[in-house]
TrEMBL record:
InterPro entries: Amino_oxidase, CrtISO-like, FAD/NAD-bd_sf. One of its GO terms (molecular function) is isomerase activity. Pfam families: Amino_oxidase. This is Putative prolycopene isomerase. It comes from the Eukaryota. Residues 71-567 form the Amine oxidase domain. GO terms for biological process: carotenoid metabolic process.
Length: 584
């Protein structure tokens, strides 16, 4: 499951996610950044005096109130609606989707976050968590498929293909025969472990003892079968799935510099950390999805916003509601229980059963009265390390002079020695109009380049966004992205010919995503005592989902977290009936 940096979004269950996909970006100084004609209507309420024509009175109560409409919040809310709960989603901004929303400027449609996906159309017990949620909602997601991306590394430029054999050809050319042998050795070791990594369907998990029925007992035969197929050595290796992936590399005595650098890059794109900090389970699943026969990558035909649209359709189909421009000011706690929320305008909305926060752990804490939060809980949150933030470059330009065979994704690594997590070193580029021409005017392209969770917030802290100092820093810190774009698109690309040029900074993230320090999420390392929090909190009836909770960062991961919370708020019987209904 991917979604951190380029955020690769491989399909699986409990993986952190697509490391390669940045958080959403909004450009407040451009009034055309969102076109009212493209904003979702139907039962999407807008609670703002600035949009009186669209204003809809909010209900004063619901069974469950969900704060935030990111992928995690929408997965949670839509499943709860599917479970026949009265659910209301409150979103501060004027479009749903959080880090996955899209915005329009001059007929260009830009992704603000995730762009590299796989497993979106998978079905069955081993499918991507997001796919399982969409399946439960009866929603489909048309996608274009492809099998490669361009890589620009110190050793050279090459087209990296997924699949069992193609990458070995690239290794032979750019790294030599020793790298080929080590890569084959790695695949032979990790691919058998994938049966254990994918043993439990993500939609079967819940956060209480009911999991013994919905997951453990229900899938015990398949679990046992997978371990038998793996044999004693494989079963022993499966015990390493919750350890850092570097331990598997070290155990295999893999020392080739290119192989170790490449694995660090994949780890970082997947989860925002290198191989010494990523769970082996995440990497094993990614290998199984990308290096098996017949595999492919996917991109939604109508952009990443199509994922959001599908979840909103599912929510509304089953009677759920979403209200935009409804900013939650506080979570209301009475008699030590979360009983609802207070909006910025003063309106109180009661939650009869639960409040679910899709905000980050740090921002959720700010919504709570200090006196009701146990010190141990607030201390844990305040001391949890954070990933750095992003720089973004969004461009709209004429396709004339651009190669006809241009690929959708490009990865630039300037210097292996600095490390893939160093600032200004790795640039991710997505040109989705290559596969989805409808995202740009005829004969044009849209492009999104970004620094994947490596931009230090401290460089930007305290700057006035209207100042010359801020503008100059944006020019300086975006130059590495411009150079990467020029390298990827070739001499036919000219900066001055871009019809749309937008630069987003960590302050953009902090302001519009309401995320402390504009962070991508928690920097949790495998093999340490610091783990992703669960979904319940010390405040009864208050739950959390999203990238601050298990299983972590990325589209598949946040989808899984939302599903786990939804499942936990209904009976085991209802949960089991849903699993039966979708055939898992």
């Amino acid at each position: 499951m991917t979604n951190h940096s380029f955020h690769f979004i491989p399909p699986h269950p409990m993986m952190k996610g697509v490391g390669l996909f940045p958080t959403a970006v909004r450009y407040p100084h451009n009034p055309n950044s969102l076109c009212p004609a493209d904003m979702r209507k139907s039962s999407v309420a807008r609670n703002s005096s600035n949009l009186n024509s669209n204003k809809v009175e909010l209900s004063s109560e619901a069974d469950i109130v969900v704060i935030g409409s990111g992928i995690g919040g929408l997965c949670c809310a839509s499943l709860l609606a599917r479970y026949e709960q009265d659910v209301l989603v409150l979103e501060s901004h004027d479009l749903p989707g959080g880090a996955a929303h899209s915005f329009h400027i001059n007929n260009y449609k830009f992704d603000s976050g995730p762009s590299l996906f796989s497993g979106l159309q998978s079905r069955g017990p081993q499918a991507n968590p997001l796919s399982q949620v969409l399946d439960a909602l009866g929603e489909s997601l048309p996608c274009a498929t492809y099998d490669s991306w361009m890589v620009y590394v110190p050793e050279g430029d090459f087209l990296s293909r997924i699949g069992p054999t193609e990458f070995c050809k690239d290794l032979a050319t750019y790294a030599g025969p020793n790298a080929v042998q080590e890569w084959k050795k790695l695949l032979d070791a990790v691919l058998p472990l994938s049966t254990a990594a994918m043993a439990l369907p993500p939609l079967s998990i819940r956060g209480d003892l009911g999991v013994l029925s919905t997951a453990a007992a229900r899938y015990a035969p398949s679990l046992l079968k997978s371990f038998v197929q793996m044999g004693p050595q494989g079963a022993l290796g499966a015990t390493k799935l919750l350890r850092p992936f570097s331990e598997i590399l070290d155990g295999l005595q893999l020392k080739d510099p290119f192989i170790r650098n490449w694995i660090d890059l994949l780890s970082f794109l997947l989860a925002g950390v290198k191989s010494n900090a990523i769970l082996s389970a995440e990497m094993v699943y990614m290998f199984a999805e990308w290096y098996k026969p017949g595999c492919n990558l996917e991109y939604p035909i109508h952009g990443s916003a199509a994922i959001v649209d599908a979840l909103v359709r599912g929510l509304e189909k089953f009677g759920g509601r979403i209200s935009l421009q409804s900013h939650v000011e506080n979570i209301v706690v009475e008699n030590d229980r979360a009983i609802g929320v207070k909006l910025r305008g003063g309106q109180f909305i009661r939650a009869r059963k639960a409040v679910v926060s899709n905000a980050s752990m740090w921002d959720t804490l700010k919504l709570l009265p200090k006196e009701v939060v146990p010190k141990s809980y607030s201390d844990r949150i305040s001391t949890t390390p954070q990933c750095e933030s992003f720089m973004h470059l969004h461009l709209g330009f004429d396709a004339e002079g651009i190669p006809n065979d241009l690929g959708i994704h490009h990865i630039v690594v300037n210097d292996w020695k600095r490390g893939v997590d160093a600032d200004q070193n790795v640039v991710l580029i997505s040109v989705p109009s290559v596969l989805s021409p409808n995202l740009a005017p005829p004969g044009k392209h849209v492009l999104h380049a970004y620094l994947p969770g490596t931009e230090p917030f401290e460089l930007w802290k305290g700057l006035d966004r209207r100042s010359a100092e801020y503008r100059n820093l944006k020019v300086e810190r975006s130059e590495v992205m411009w150079r990467a774009v020029e390298r990827a698109l070739g001499p036919g690309f000219k900066r001055e010919k871009c019809e749309v040029k937008l630069v987003g900074s960590p302050l953009t993230h902090e302001r519009f995503l309401r995320r402390k320090r504009g962070t991508y999420g928690p920097a949790v390392e495998a093999g340490t005592n610091n783990t992703f929090p669960g979904h319940s909190t010390p405040i009864p009836q208050l739950y959390c989902c999203g990238d601050s909770t298990f299983p972590g960062i990325g589209v598949p991961a946040v989808a899984a977290s939302g599903a786990i919370v939804a499942n936990s708020l209904v009976s085991v019987s209802q949960h089991s009936q849903l699993l039966d209904a979708i055939g898992i």
